[in-house]
């Protein structure tokens, strides 16, 4: 039975488009009262959520319009997350690995386990028709990594996905900057930090 207060992304996806709940609009009070650290001292159910899949292209607005490039996971790789979590913004660790076809090698600094923020939902500001899971790894990559396998471990929820009316894109950009800061501070706690060496991630150091 779907939780009537916090339906999962999958519950919402199964509804006809016209009866999906609309995302809350971001208010000034929300902006002014955002906490700098979120979640309990130790990750709690349903976290950690383990994800992996080959990186797909999105619409490309993340890098161009928002200064925040995102890597999309294929639909079938989203289920471990969408079946247990409501749409929203989440934090954890991510890692890009060598290409699935093996012909494009990324430098050592690009294949490390790194902090990430993730958006699960329908991007209400852009009114996407499809549910997506988009991951922004907090790192300056030397090149694109479409087609490469990405692994991620989601450890906590930051906020719901919001719609932006009054200050539009500027408000979204500001919130994403805050999300990144909140993610870094929340991950700095010892019980979160230890997941950076979880066996879900590949140990590239042994092969280099
Ligand atoms: C940390 C983070 C938070 C986001 N929060 C929202 C949000 O509250 N509302 C929204 O409509 N989209 C949100 N997005 C999604 C962006 O709109 C989306 O990543 C962007 O449009 C890029 O998608 P594209 O590469 O498919 O063009 C968020 C993305 C990230 C990485």
Automatic annotation (TrEMBL):
The keyword Transferase is annotated on this UniProt entry: yes
Membrane spanning residue stretches: none
Superkingdom: Eukaryota
ATP-binding is among the record's keywords: yes
Pathway this chain belongs to: Cofactor biosynthesis; FMN biosynthesis; FMN from riboflavin (ATP route): step 1/1
Record GO biological process: FMN biosynthetic process; riboflavin biosynthetic process
EC number: 2.7.1.26
Domain Riboflavin kinase per the UniProt entry, residue ranges: 50-188
Segments of this protein annotated with the region Disordered: 1-47
Keyword annotations of the record: ATP-binding, Flavoprotein, FMN, Nucleotide-binding, Transferase
Enzyme class per UniProt: transferase
Matches recorded under Pfam families: Flavokinase (PF01687)
One GO location term (cellular component): mitochondrion
MF annotations from Gene Ontology: ATP binding; riboflavin kinase activity
Gene3D superfamilies named among the record's database cross-references: Riboflavin kinase-like
Family the entry assigns: Belongs to the flavokinase family.
Functional note: Catalyzes the phosphorylation of riboflavin (vitamin B2) to form flavin mononucleotide (FMN) coenzyme.
Protein name according to UniProt: Riboflavin kinase
Organism whose genome encodes this protein: Dentipellis fragilis
Lineage: Eukaryota, Fungi, Dikarya, Basidiomycota, Agaricomycotina
């Amino acid at each position: 039975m779907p939780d009537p207060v916090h339906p999962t992304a999958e519950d919402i996806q199964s509804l006809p488009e016209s009866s999906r709940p609309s995302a809350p609009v971001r208010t000034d009070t929300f902006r002014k009262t955002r906490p700098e650290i979120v979640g309990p001292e130790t990750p709690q159910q349903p976290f950690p959520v383990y994800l992996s899949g080959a990186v797909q292209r999105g619409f490309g607005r993340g890098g161009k319009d928002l200064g925040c490039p995102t890597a999309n996971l294929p639909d079938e790789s989203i289920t471990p997350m969408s079946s247990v979590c409501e749409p929203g913004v989440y934090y954890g660790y991510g890692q890009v690995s060598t290409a699935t076809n093996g012909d494009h090698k990324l430098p050592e600094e690009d294949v490390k386990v790194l902090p990430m923020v993730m958006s699960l939902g329908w991007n209400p500001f852009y009114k996407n028709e499809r549910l997506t899971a988009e991951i922004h790894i907090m790192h300056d990559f030397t090149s694109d990594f479409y087609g490469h396998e990405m692994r991620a471990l989601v450890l906590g929820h930051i906020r719901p996905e919001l719609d932006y009316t009054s200050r539009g894109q500027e408000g979204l950009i500001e919130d994403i900057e805050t999300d990144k800061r909140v993610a870094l501070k929340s991950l700095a706690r010892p019980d979160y930090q230890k997941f950076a060496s979880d066996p879900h991630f590949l140990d590239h150091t042994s092969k280099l």
